[in-house]
Amino acid sequence: MKVYKIPEATVMRLxxxxxxxxxxxxxxxxxxxxxxIASGVGVSSAQVRKDLAYFGEFGTRGVGYKVEExxxxxxKILGLDQNWNxxxxxxxxxGSALALYKGFEDRGFKVTSILDVDNKRIMKQIGDVTxxxxxxxxxxxxxxxxxxxxxxxxAAAAQDVTDQLVAAxxxxxLNFSPRVIKVPNDVILRNVDLSxxxxxxxxxxxxxx
Amino acid sequence: MKVYKIPEATVMRLxxxxxxxxxxxxxxxxxxxxxxIASGVGVSSAQVRKDLAYFGEFGTRGVGYKVEExxxxxxKILGLDQNWNxxxxxxxxxGSALALYKGFEDRGFKVTSILDVDNKRIMKQIGDVTxxxxxxxxxxxxxxxxxxxxxxxxAAAAQDVTDQLVAAxxxxxLNFSPRVIKVPNDVILRNVDLSxxxxxxxxxxxxxx
DNA sequence: CCACTAAAGTGAAACTTTTCTCGATTATTT
DNA sequence: AAATAATCGAGAAAAGTTTCACTTTAGTGG
Lengths: 209, 209
Known about the structure:
2 copies of one chain form a homodimer.
Chain A: H1 8-26, E1 31-32, H2 34-41, H3 45-53, E2 65-66, H4 67-77, E3 84-89, H5 93-100, H6 102-106, E4 109-116, E5 125-126, E6 129-133, H7 137-143, E7 148-151, H8 155-168, E8 172-175, E9 188-191, H9 194-208
Parallel strand pairs in A: 3-4, 3-7, 4-6, 7-8, 8-9
Antiparallel strand pairs in A: 1-2, 5-6
Helix pairs in contact in A: 1-4, 2-3, 7-8
The first copy, chain A, binds a DNA duplex through α3.
């Protein structure tokens, strides 16, 4: 089985499957068929099986998958069998909300640093992290072994902050700013553009009128 | 030219192109080639032309596109030649951050209602909107002509809140809760799953190790 | 222990999206 | 006025993704 290139859509679905399995675990369900997962998350059963097939054979023909076992596999595949320290740059409303977002902690992401340039925000307490100066970026990344950075600064500052994260050795960046930013090839970038998402809705609404 | 089915990826890129064009407008650039847009937002020039081709012929061969004109077309296509009133359900950190998010206002999305079930949040002031009881959902949707709802409630409440939005006549939903929710066919749904995004990063980091 | 049923796994087909290539058109230069 | 350069638009090709249909295997009931 070749694991050359996994479609990003597959990875996103795996993440969703894993959360669905977690629900099943809590309900003490032991086995689950691809069709159950499929109807639970709104895809086809063939899709579920194809997605899993990239990584191995986890099921038993005629029976299905053991929930706990498959869940373990998925968490491992997603790299969630470990904890990740995360740094957030930008302590505005969005950065603060993300820092306090329970969904991250539940999945093994721990926000260990929040930095900002604005003196009014520095020293502010967010959860159990204190906002610090952006000058400490490199130091915090190094001492906390941070691989993942989250950018929640205004568009104008996004590229600059990203460059600093890259220079400090961060390997993956989640960008919430509404600006296209560039990173070297060996750094993984994902954009969560809140406006784009609303605009896709707007487009579809305008279309059906 | 058939406008039967536009890929969602195309719509998302149009949104990004339009913001890039807005920058050019501010810099008083008059014309732009598909290649300029392409390198500005990190796609291929053929991709830009194909995306635009779904909607018409906006350029001049040998020359390029008039920035202002193309910008106007894109805004129209995206349904941003009008303002949209938006209701947010869930006045927690994330809901509050979104309500105050400047990027929405800039693009014609106005948050006119924020509702919650929690009495501790009701009456709170967020920007110039006061948090109100979820009981007012139908009333506010009706009187404010709301088509777009944003769900920022905990996973357990997401489906229930969504059903209420649908019942009230909302036609498009942006779901931030980490739960797969179901809507009728005629309602447009988009999910912004913050954890999924981090997990895609985690997957790729784990892969390259 | 054999027939039957359920469901995973898989190769091929269908479909979708992106990239390539090239003819057409416009502006510019000589 | 003709040659040249730039760049769009579109059909074809390529690549990628999803769905289909079938084969295989494990468990179950007679």
